[in-house]
Design goal:
Length: about 210
């Protein structure tokens, strides 16, 4: 038998192993304690853990998509203004057109616009009446308009002289003939009139002066 395996040598080796065992177990316990401390530090440190990068896994970053918010523009409700006929004005103005409305008559129109009724009738050639209907367009004279003043005939005008006369409101062939000492037949013949009631305000007639004898 070899000297290395003598009973004495075996006993010495076992004694040495038993003597080293406490040191080995102490080192192992210290290592485990240190490892536990590191784990506790990692848990407490969280995001600040310097070792986190070693064990970190890629976490997908969510993409935030902003949905545009569309605010509807305010819708304005149109204001409907009723359309009426021309508004009468109190300021003198030139002739203007007017569309006849329901229930209008010449007197109400003349009063609304502040014009002379006779002038209104004359500028529209209405004669002695007011033949208007809704929708007709008539002329409104200026507020300061007046009927024309007749120019007096010369006193030395010769009998039978033909003069020009403008028909006025209320005129008839008879009244014109009487005014100038003429006759209805003479006026009709000079102006080619077949119906003596057909003359209108504003017509220009030729009248033979002092044809009739008194």
């Amino acid at each position: 038998m070899s000297i290395n395996f003598t009973p004495k040598n075996v006993i010495n080796k076992n004694n040495k192993r038993q003597q080293m065992m406490p040191f080995f177990l102490g080192a192992l316990a210290g290592f485990l304690a240190l490892l536990g401390i590191l784990i506790i530090v990692m848990v407490v440190a969280g995001a600040r853990n310097p070792f986190a990068a070693m064990f970190a896994t890629d976490t997908p970053t969510p993409t935030i998509t902003l949905t545009p918010s569309v605010t509807p523009l305010p819708t304005e409700t149109p204001t409907i203004t009723p359309t009426e006929g021309p508004t009468p004005t109190n300021t003198p103005a030139g002739p203007q057109q007017y569309i006849v409305q329901q229930d209008d008559n010449c007197w109400s129109i003349a009063n609304a616009f502040g014009v002379d009724l006779l002038v209104l009738l004359q500028v529209n050639n209405f004669g002695n009446d007011c033949p208007i209907t809704p929708g007709d367009t008539i002329i409104i004279p200026a507020q300061n308009a007046e009927l024309p003043t007749e120019t007096p005939l010369p006193t030395d005008l010769a009998r039978g002289t033909i003069i020009e006369y403008t028909v006025k409101l209320g005129d008839t062939l008879q009244s014109i003939a009487d005014k100038f000492d003429s006759t209805i037949e003479s006026i009709k013949n000079l102006n080619n009139i077949t119906d003596e009631n057909s003359i209108k305000v504003g017509d220009s007639l030729r009248v033979r002066y002092m044809l009739a004898t008194r």
